[in-house]
Structures are given as C-alpha cells and as structure tokens.
Amino acid sequence: MSATLAPEPVRTAAPPTPRTGSPVALVASLLGFTVITIDVTAVNIALPDIRATLHGGMAGLQWVVDAYTLMFAALMLSAGALADRAGARRAYAWGVGLFTAASLACALAPGIGALIAARVAQGGAAAMVMPASLALIRQAYDDPRRRARAIALWTVGGSAAVAVGPVLGGILTETAGWRAVFLLNLPVGAAILALLARTARSPRRPAPLDIAGQVTAVLTLAGLAFAVIEGGHLGWTSTPVLAAFAVAAASALAFRAAEKRHRAPMVPLGLLRQRQVSVALAVGFAVNAGFYGVTFLLGLYYQQLRGMSGVEAGLMFVPLAAFITGTNLVSPRLAERVGRRRVVVLGQAILALAMFALLPLAADTPLWLVLVLLIPTGIGGALAVPALTAQLMDSVPGERAGTASGLLNSLRQTGGAMSVALFGALLAGEGAGFSLPGMRTGLLVAGLTLCATTALAARLLPRG
Fold first, then answer.
1. What is the pTM of this model?
2. What distance in Å separates the CA atoms of residue 129 and residue 407, rounded to the nearest whole number?
3. Phi, psi of 428, deg, nearest 5
C-alpha cells in the first residue's frame, strides 16, 4: 500500500529575483557533504580497532560499513522528494540534526549490534543531508556557470573527504580510540546548523510520499546486501542466502509495480527513460563501486596484510587525497573546454585502468609502488564526478533538483555498498585472514564494470 500527503495550497508570488549565489549556503552544504562522506572512509580505518573492542567478525565489519551506506542509498530516494516538499534548507537542518544525534549513539555503542543499529540511523539521516545539500546549491545559484563551479566546489569537499577520512580516522583511532571518529561529528553538526540559520528560506514543491516504493526499495537493497555479505560466509547456496536473493528479486519487481501505479512516485519511471539520466545513474554506480571498494580494500590490506598501525594506514591515503582535490578543481574547467561527455568518459577509463593496475598487489609490493598505482584511482573518479553531477543537474528542471540528486547519489551509494559487500565476501580467507586472490577478483569485477559504463557513456551521452 502507499500513503500520500494532501498537496499544500499553491501560493502565488512575485517572479523571483535571479540569484547569483550564497556563500553561506555553499559553505553549509559543503560541510554537510564532507562530514557524511568522511564518516564512510574514516570508519574503514577504524574497523580493526572496532573488531578488537566489540569482537565482531568480517561479516560484522561489513555490516558496520553497509548498514550506513545501504540506508543512505535507499532512503535518499524519498529524501530527494522531501527536500523538494519541505524546502532544501529545512530538510537539510533535519538531516544534520538527526545525523549528529546518531553519531553520538554510535560513539556510545556497547556492542557490535548496537553500533550497527546506530549506523542504520546515521545512514538514514545522511540520506536526508545529501540531496538537500545539493538542492540548496541548485536553488542558490541561478546562473548555470556559477552553479557548475559551486557544484564543483561541493564535489571537491566530498571527494577530498573520501581520501582524507582514512588519515583522520587513523589518527583519531590511534590517539583517542574509534569512538572519537563519531564524536568529531558533533561540533561539525552544530556549526552547520548555525550557518543554516543565516541562509534564506527555500521554496517548496508539493510532493506526496511514496511509502510502498520506499519500503520495497529498502527490502531490495537489504536483501541483496545480505545475500552478498553472508554468501561469502554461509555459502552461496545456503538457504538464508538464497532466500535473501529471492526477497531482493521480489521486492525489485514490487518496487517497479509500485512506481508505475503511484500518481507521484519517488522514482519517476519517465525520468529514468531519459538517456542522460539513466546513463548518469549507471556511471555513478560504477565509479563509486570502484572507488569505495578500493578504499575499503586498502584499509584492510595495509593493516591486516602489511601490519601497519591505523595512523600509518591513514597516511598512505594522503597522496590520494591530494590528487582527488587537485583533479576536482581541474575537472569543471576541462569540461568547459572539451565537453562534459569526454571528461566523464576519460575519468571512467582512468579509474578502470587503476583497478587493473592494482591486480599484482601483494604483501611484499614496495610501498612507493602502491602509492604510484593509487594515483589513477584518485584522478579517475575525481575527473568524472563533477562533470557527471553538473550535467545531470542541468538536464532536469529546477523543481526536480532534489529528486534527481537523490537518484544519482542513491545509485552512487548503492555502488559503494555493493562493492564493500562483494570485496568483504571475497577477502575473507581461512581463519578470517586476508585473501589476495579474493582481492584480485574484486578488483577485476570493478574494472570490467567501469569498462562497460565507459563504453555506455561514450556512446549515449550528448556530445555538446
């Protein structure tokens, strides 16, 4: 069944004055995107310490990561519509407040189960933050050129956070324990709310809630993640795993049926039939699958196979952070010169090559060579994402900015969650050790997926 809210009365107003941009709104959006992204990669470095403290196995560690990213991905679909309905500023404030409270619950978790439950709440709150932050920028900048540059800065913060997160996570874990990784979110959340108080109110658009679509989306992703994570531990033909695959398949069909019937679906199927939108979603999935998969993989590789401390492992990501930040700054200007399609294709191709370049990685690979091999990983994703995001935002009307943002980021987070589930299942060797063959299989799958979406983008994205 589905429940809808009655549309609010339409308010007439004078034509809006063109907005050249709000630095306060941009900073608030940037901080929120940064903190929810840092939470993913910082926790990756803290996983061994969490395991030692709370006594969770490999499956438990995978759920610590994926409980966050799955709820992030699934609830972002409704969160995009909520950002349109409530207004970007109000939805953003709700999300930041909930995220801050959930972070405190994570820091106080007494066991692995409580931590996973708190991560579920944290991921749901982050889902509200993501599309609202991008919609806030979309509504603050009317000029397409200024908006593209603002989105590029927004992306710089998130992309740099992906790489800086491990460094910060390692330092905090080694000096104050893994709980400090979550406590750091409290002052940042307070700062964001203070900035939001200085921003203008956002316009609203009546958007009914799609309960049936939301529930079936959560069941689909949760069933698929359970099957992949537990398949590596219980066996791929075990009854629970097969049942989870069946639930995921049935829920996916129910989701499609619900979206076809609902008068205002959270995922408009007509929007998915637009070539630029569908290609952008596929590319976003593949890029995050490769990047988040490598981040998860290397955090364990450095510590479990190379015997590094959390700080040492985190510092290994510093060069990656530098290349991500620098490339994000170059990407929008390069897109203006040669076109967004070429930049999106080039970024994916470089990231695919990075996956294949990491295949020979072993326990005795010189550390300088590992750092060199990581360079294309930072360049590829950082090159593609700003151009991809700006192209999607320009391909939809302003009132659909929250929905489009939710779709893109939901697919990106789903790609990250599925890669963590797959990599974790493949990495678990005998005695819960680190499996090099499993690592290489995961890298190969990620590389081939990126090759496929590279060809898709080259063929179907517009040349302009």
1. 0.76
2. 14
3. -70, 100
